[in-house]
Amino acid sequence: MLSCKNIYYRYSRRAPWVLEDFSHEFGKGIHLIKGYSGCGKSTLLRIIGGYLKQQRGKVQIDGYRSNNAKFKKKDLGFVFQQLNLLPLASIKRNLNLAAALAGMSKRNRTEKTDQYLGMLGLGHFQKRLPKSMSGGQQQRASIARALIKEPKVLLLDEPTSGLDDLNTEVIINVLREFIDGGNRIAIICTHDSRLDKVAHDILDFNRFLPMEGHLEALAGTAR
């Protein structure tokens, strides 16, 4: 359903490759990408989502490339580490705008907004601005916004970072239900071992980028 073929990416011509001849196929289910900071996890998500353009190789999703405008509009949900909620819009308005951009009808937008805010425990917060909510509530709101159009591909960058076990368990339950509800893919960049139990596949990026030796020395783990 989603394939990366011979992907190369670096941030400048003289910089080392962040991704070098990377190939992988992602089928239906939840896929975790793990690895040290700087190993290319977030870069790969942005390439799949069409926010970065690889120097070589291609990404194919249901027959079209990920930077296709239709894919971004209708079939992609993305949760960034920075969350990127609109600061001057209520949580409900954040979801409604995302649904409207995907071409959903007003009736469907209202129904799905209530559904996903309820699933993520935010039904009583829909009129609140992001800044008036806790970090965990904002993270759940960002996930709700990505889910509202029920995309074929859901990309999440550290969605449970800094969250307590209760918030994390709520997110895990919603992701399970979302994936079980259709022919969908979720790809999650994470350091959080609590998500291992929900994964259908775990891809270890450490094999693509060896840990920097000077960090081992600083951490006192060098041999």
Structure at a glance:
This protein has helices at residues 41-48, 69-75, 91-101, 106-119, 135-147, 165-180, 213-219, and strands spanning 2-9, 19-26, 29-34, 56-61, 64-65, 76-79, 153-157, 185-189, 201-204. It is α/β, with parallel strands linked by helices. The longest helix is centred in the C-terminal third of the chain and has 16 residues, at 165-180.
For the structure shown, list the relevant keywords.
223 residues; Rossmann fold; 5-stranded parallel β-sheet; 4-stranded antiparallel β-sheet; 9 strands
Question: What does this molecule look like?
Answer:
This protein has a single domain (2-211), classed as P-loop containing nucleotide triphosphate hydrolases (Rossmann fold, 3-Layer(aba) Sandwich). 34% of the residues lie in helices and 22% in strands. It has seven helices and nine strands; from the N terminus they run βββαββαβαααβαββα. The strands form two sheets. A five-stranded parallel beta sheet has the order 6-7-8-3-9, with helices on both faces. Strands 2-1-4-5 form a four-stranded antiparallel beta sheet, covered by helices on one side. Helix 6 links the parallel strand 7 (153-157) and strand 8. The longest helix has 16 residues, at 165-180.
